[in-house]
């Protein structure tokens, strides 16, 4: 029974509808089993909320298990992932910090908990502490891909793009297609190369590292969507239509599999970018009708991306400007969600709205550091300011 519960949590952590239904199938007969002890019953209850799509209730259920049984590593992991998927970084940090204290320094699982702790620290902006925790995790388990991934986030957050690219290349050398998180790690590599304006390297990584999937249809396409979108923002003259058509075909069946807001967002982008607005509108309608409350600002973010693809940059920039600070509620990491502010500043520049473009630059995350691509954005912003001042002077 313990192994079945572990498998169910692992399936649920994919956040794919088919895997969620498989987890529900695994757990259904367990609920009717005789003499189910209290902890198992509590875990089954939390899993039930998860399979029903009630992530806050599932998180609270697993947290109650951890509060009663502090050494329950599977429930600790489930809380961590549910906090991540719900965009609750403060609770993610508080819960894992508390959990780490329960385990002895020589416990076989402590290294992996350090990796979870490192990621939670990074998502809360405590970068130096996160780096120390990741190093400790990797000393204990050099192959801990989650700790390595958290370290990559730290390098990204500090603008160390060249170092991040090198770190990933060295780590992934000799590792094959079965490496956990392989596609996502290569997405990080492509992101580092993108900000360095190494476009051909980005395209090569997209084709070989990101679109070389481990299953025919899966949410491995999440990272492909936002990488291709970012590339289109930075290099609007590039013809990426063939890439988008291929990606759209993989996302096309998702409308019937809609289950989780973060995944919905990526499908919606793929539909809009490919011009299938009927499918995009149907998906947003499904999201709104699902029965779970849509966090504030999410509809603006979805519609902002839709407006961008239709060329209504003024509407896109206004919607994204008033909503991008609320984007954490859709889940995902800081690095994944900063595509929203990058889209916002691009929309503001294209609609010649200097005030909004400056707001994105000053209050967003990605413009804290220097890179060839970000320097170009600064130059465009300066040119727009000079142009606006000149126009105002002429009108006077």
Could you name the key traits of this structure?
mainly alpha, 396 residues, single chain
Task: Describe the overall structure.
This protein has 396 residues and is an all-alpha fold. Helix content is 72%, strand content 0%. The longest helix is centred in the last third of the chain and has 24 residues, at 372-395. The protein is globular and about 75 Å long. The N and C termini lie far apart (78 Å). The model has no long low-confidence stretch (mean pLDDT 92).
* N to C succession of SSEs: HHHHHHHHHHHHHHHHHHHHHH
N→C terminal distance = 78 Å
Mean pLDDT rating: 92
Number of helices, counting only DSSP H or I runs of 4 residues or more: 22
Q: Give the amount of beta strand, in percent.
A: under 5%
Based on CA atoms alone, the radius of gyration comes out at 22 Å
Number of strand segments:
0
Low-confidence stretches: none
Net shape: globular
Q: What's the helical proportion of residues?
A: over 70%
Helix-and-strand structural type: mainly alpha
Largest sheet: none
Task: Give a quick summary of the entry.
This protein is mainly alpha-helical. It is built from 22 helices and no strands. Helices cover 72% and strands 0% of the residues.
């Amino acid at each position: 029974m313990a192994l079945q519960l572990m498998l169910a949590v692992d399936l649920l952590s994919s956040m794919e509808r088919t895997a969620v239904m498989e987890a529900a199938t695994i757990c259904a007969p367990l609920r009717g089993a005789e003499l189910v002890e209290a902890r198992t019953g509590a875990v089954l209850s939390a899993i039930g909320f998860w399979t029903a799509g009630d992530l806050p209730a599932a998180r609270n259920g697993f947290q109650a298990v951890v509060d009663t049984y502090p050494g329950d590593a599977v429930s600790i992991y489930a809380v961590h992932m549910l906090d991540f998927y719900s965009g609750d970084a403060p609770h993610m940090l508080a819960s894992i910090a508390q959990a780490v204290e329960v385990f002895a320094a020589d416990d076989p699982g402590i290294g992996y908990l350090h990796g979870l702790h490192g990621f939670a620290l990074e998502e809360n902006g405590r970068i130096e502490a996160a780096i120390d925790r990741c190093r400790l995790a990797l000393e204990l388990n050099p192959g801990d891909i989650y700790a390595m991934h958290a370290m990559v986030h730290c390098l990204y957050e500090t603008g160390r793009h060249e170092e991040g690219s090198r770190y990933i290349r060295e780590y992934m050398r000799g590792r094959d297609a079965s490496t956990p998180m392989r596609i996502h790690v290569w997405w990080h590599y492509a992101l580092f190369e993108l900000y360095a304006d190494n476009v051909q390297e980005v395209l090569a990584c997209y084709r070989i590292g990101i679109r070389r999937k481990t299953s025919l249809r899966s949410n491995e396409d999440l990272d492909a969507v936002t990488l291709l979108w970012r590339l289109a923002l930075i290099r609007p003259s590039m013809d990426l239509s063939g890439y988008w058509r291929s990606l759209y075909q993989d996302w096309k069946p998702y409308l019937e599999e809609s289950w989780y807001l973060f995944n919905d967002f990526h499908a919606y982008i793929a539909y809009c970018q490919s011009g299938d607005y009927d499918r995009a509108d149907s998906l947003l309608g499904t999201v709104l009708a699902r029965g779970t409350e849509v966090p504030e600002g999410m509809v603006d973010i979805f519609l902002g991306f839709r407006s961008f693809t239709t060329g209504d940059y003024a509407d896109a920039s206004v919607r994204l400007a008033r909503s991008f600070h609320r984007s954490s509620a859709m889940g995902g990491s800081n690095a994944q969600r900063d595509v929203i502010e990058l889209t916002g500043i691009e929309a503001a520049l294209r609609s010649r709205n200097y005030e909004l473009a400056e707001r994105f630059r000053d209050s967003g995350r990605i413009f804290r550091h220097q890179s060839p691509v970000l320097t170009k954005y600064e130059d465009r912003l300066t040119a727009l300011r000079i142009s606006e001042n000149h126009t105002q002077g002429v009108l006077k």
